[in-house]
Amino acid sequence: MNHLTIQELEVIRQIKTETPKNNLDNISRTNAYFSYFKKNPDIVWSFLASMVSRNGGWNMCDLEGPIFREILEPQTRKELFLTFERANWLIFHDVFPQLLIYQYSTKFKQPMFHLLPYFHVSSFIQKEWERYWKEGDRERLTTSLIINEQNVIHAPVIQHPVYRKKVFHSFIFNFQDWLHFSCVLFPTCGGELYGASVNGFRSLSKRINLGKRLAKILTHPRLFPYFFEFADRTPHTGSRFDYEQYFKMNTPRKTPILRATFPVIEHHRHEVDDWSKQRMISPAWLYADPRHRHPIHLTDWYVEKTNQLNLMLALHKTMNLKKM
């Protein structure tokens, strides 16, 4: 680092302080992504990350809600929570320094991307930031960040032998996948829900495609102001009551809030491999247009799925009573 200026050393130091401070838990990450977007509205990915992170929090808190507490063993719930948490933590750990370096670049009016290697980010994303600085193609940068982050979690989480065996090949995960319960929702303060569901979560290309579809929904000119209003007006607690409170019908709080439910997990990242040196970049990731096979307006779908889950819970209880 001896060839760096005092200013550059200071930037690195500040980023190394700022990142872990905001990477404490799902709430701090969600808030950090959103406040970053408000300061840097051209970085659409940051708003997308904030909304996807909200969904991550809701999924975590569902594990301690009435349905999954009844259906899943405590150990299974713990493993699912740790999987969500690890993936969220890794993405933030990788991307937040990138976002801050871009912010410093705009502040100093000169590119600072030569500092990215000090944060072990992929050579793929380094080139994409430099390209964005020159060309200003927002859509390409959003897609590149989606590609990068899904690759970042692919080996350490999705393909990790422990997570793979205990989570991604478990009955409940495949069951959830099959029923499309794994859905990313973008709520509005008018009580409407938009979004897309993912099945085949283990597939890298399917996750990238989902990210691109979600980016398209989020930036839809008519819908964007409603999503922004929701994010700006609604503190993220991790409970689905965050958006169910806006429903037309009166919906009581069913899932707990995150910080009253889960401890802060201490993470470490030992070896950092540059995924882009080991994996081919598929042209489809960058250039294929994401198509919506299903409607993006999901309010009625959500009500139906909730009813299905409640029915499943009732059946589960009935079966257990018969065994007694």
Description:
The structure is a single chain. The protein is mostly helical and 324 residues long. It has one domain. 62% of the residues lie in helices and 3% in strands. The protein has 14 helices and two strands, in the order H-H-H-H-H-H-H-H-H-E-E-H-H-H-H-H. Strands 1-2 form a two-stranded antiparallel ribbon. Strand 1 and strand 2 form a beta hairpin. Helix 3 packs antiparallel against helix 5 and helix 5 runs antiparallel to helix 7. The longest helix has 35 residues. The radius of gyration is 20 Å and the shape is globular. It starts with 5 loop residues before the first helix and ends with a helix. 35% of the residues are buried.
Structural class: mainly alpha
Largest sheet: 2 strands, antiparallel
Encode the helix/strand succession as letters: HHHHHHHHHEEHHHHH
Average pLDDT reading: 90
Unreliable runs:
none
Helix proportion range: 55-70%
Shape: globular
Strand content: under 5%
Number of strands: 2
Instruction: State the end-to-end CA separation.
Output: 68 Å
Tally of structural domains: 1
Work out the helix count: 14
Give the strand order, joined by hyphens, for the main sheet.
1-2
What Rg is obtained from the alpha carbons, in whole angstroms? 20 Å
